[in-house]
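Box 3.1. Reading complex inputs
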Amino acid sequence: MLEGILIGLGTAFSITNILMVVGGCLIGTFIGMLPGLGPMSIISIMIPVAISIGDPSAALILLAGVYYGAIFGGSTSSILINAPGVASTVASSFDGYPLARAGKAGKALTVAAIASFAGGSIGAILLMVFAPALATVALLFHSAEYFALMVVGLSAIAAFAGSGQVGKALMMTILGLIMATVGEGALFNLPRFTMGIQDLQSGFGFITLAMAMFAMPEALFLVLDPGRSGGKDGKSSEIKELRITKSEAWSITPVIGRQSIQGFLIGVLPGAGATIASFLGYAVERNIARKDEQAEFGKGSIKGLAAPECANNAACTGSFVPLLTLGIPGSGTTAILLGALIALNVSPGPRLMVDNPSIFWAVIISMYIGNLILLILNLPLIPYIAKILAVPRNYLIPFILFFTLMGAYIGQNNATELLLLTGMGIVATILRFADYPLAPALIGFILGSMLEDNFSRSMQLYDGVAFIVERPMTLALLVLAVILVILPSYRARRARARAEGIADGD
Amino acid sequence: MTLDRYIALVFLLICLVYGYAAFFTMDQGLPPFMQRNPIWPSTFPKVLSVMGVLAGLTIVLGIEKSNHTAEVAEINYRKLTEYKLGQALMLLALMVIYAFALRPAGFLVSTTLFLVCGSAVLGERRWFLMCAVALVASGVVWYLVDVVLGIFMRPFPAFVM
């Protein structure tokens, strides 16, 4: 292994390759900030460039830089303007945006950068050590387990079901699940609930929905209430607290440790991926946090931002395990990378480590380097990126609206999508007036189709619902989901009973 | 009845229509071989509609005891007219116009106009600066998306090119 690492280091540390990774990180970060262009689209756009380089190691190093840059860029837009362009950064906006609104945008971006760096690096170490062993474990997961895993992912909604809000959070989740059933499913090839409208044939677009539910209500609130953005002169609230303090760094260290490992393990499972890892990371950290810290989640908790960021990056690294060891791409991004590798005359699979050790190790080392360069490049840039919020609101708000429109348009290339976006944005704003949490709807929408597909597949395999009891892992995961949902409300009930002076049995 | 219960009522109606479609109309055209499956395209929607009706009912009937300490509401919808409602509605109208204009008028023209009108609605009056910012921004975004990334967007009105 040591020999391999040395080969990889030797390849990665040439002047051209370092320039590649720097360029890749910059391109990824800046394009990734545009909602609608996630890592997947940016990598696919960069593939012709990478292939024309010719040298597989250099090409992979460039793509790794682009990949990590794009992930960070996506987090930037979800933290600064509440416009998550990729499903896996939705959870980052739960606490990232409140932090930015409190004038701590610089701090939020720093936490995001550090957490992603740590998640990615720890993920890369785990990848190096455990890749071959984990590949076999990932194959033990069948659709029944995936179904159960999605249910566990949905339990993240419990995080929004504060006191007296359980019904509302549940209702919004079901709304999201219902919206996910619109359009043609992969399994049945029948259009459902399209009401005869051609444009709904492929269902609602994720970006349209994310923009309509998060970015648009926020922009409209800023318009309705000019005092919301801080000062009277129309400027956003002053940007303060750019760096994190030592105690904050200590408080997120255990979060990063836990979420790197958990995120990595979820990322290893083909198909589960970074989105579930980030939601679950958020839910788990919220559930195990101390009571006073728990109250901060959703209102600008540093832990609540670090958890999804870290889990997201670790999962992205974890998704390389099945790709490199089995040749199975576990996510859209790795599928595109697989295409790039094959175009470069490298076929990933069990033989890769034996036949082409220099490429195997170059990929892993390039992940380290991509992460490291990204951190070095971005930490000094953060104050400038955060200044986006200091743009006068007369200019900022039209731009936010323009970017939401652009995100929906680029993804679908369909002007009807823009009308859909405006309509759903209005509905979402009304829902926010009535204090309905919108995140559960989006979580339901993202997980809905995966949930149904895996459920249907296991129903077909087992000819009924017997898989729930016949597969111990499925049962265990479902029990875990129930615990995750019930625990917070049980704790709240107990705390209330205590507050009223009624001891409940202890 | 408060706004959140009205919304729950609407949601309940949606669930009933959705459930009606799932239970009664959807399976009519199902080919016979698919009817032998343990799972039908309508299975999941059926479950969802039942759950949705239950969730909607809990809120409409106010079953859940809410001890939600009314934090200072972000926007009080009862006093909506005291906020800058006109500006918000005008911006929404602008978005709709943009959606219709994007294809025929081309990206550069419609985006520049959208950005200028948007800031004008919000009360900005430095016309020269506004036009400059809008032109540069739409040019940069168009160059990035169309030329660099290769996603086609018609830059000028249809009769120009």
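In summary: The CA atoms of residues 323 and 334 of chain A lie 7 Å apart.
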